[in-house]
Amino acid sequence: MKKNMIFVSIIFLIIVTAGTYFFLKKFFLYPSEEKAMKELNYAQQYLSMGDINKALNRKNIKINYLGFSGIASKYPFTKAGNISKFYAGICYYKLGYYKESIKIMKSFYAKDEFLSSIKYGMIGDAFIQIKNKKEALKNYVIAANIRDNEITTPLYYYKAGLLNFSMKKYKDSKYFLKKIDKKYPLFLYKKNVEKYLMFIENKL
Description:
Radius of gyration: 23 Å
Number of domains: 2
Number of helices: 10
Order of helices and strands: HHHHHHHHHH
CATH architecture of the largest domain: Alpha Horseshoe
Number of strands: 0
Strand content: under 5%
Distance between the termini: 76 Å
Structural class: mainly alpha
Helix content: over 70%
CATH class of the largest domain: Mainly Alpha
Mean pLDDT: 83
Shape: elongated
């Protein structure tokens, strides 16, 4: 009898949870998504014109206009709200608000592996600006290793290599630069990699 009651309770809980989910999706998430997308279009227009302040709208320039910051805050569970976190992170970085950039970029969820790499790379760049080299290095390594490719992988290995070089950790720098030298012959800064490796070889 008790087992039957437990089973019935579990089924009831599943039904209620599923019903709540579909209710929220139909009457809350869908309308919110449409509103967020409209706001996102406005923000993207400002960004395309190079007006980062208006695109971000950190100080609520107009009451009826949210900007990336407001969209991320008001519609955090929508797709538009999520991508706004990514845009806001870039805008904050460009405007010199590095801690804000780190915070909102961390909250951005990226299914796309390329975007995910850029996310961690941007966080690394922001940590560099606030002189936290340890966290910067950690994020560069994450960014490089999300998925092996010809663009983001060598780029963030390069940044990790240069960061170690700046700290005179030449063995660690060599480790990352060698990865690029062996595997990514078409990397944009390949000649720089070779120069750094020559310098390190003479140092060690």
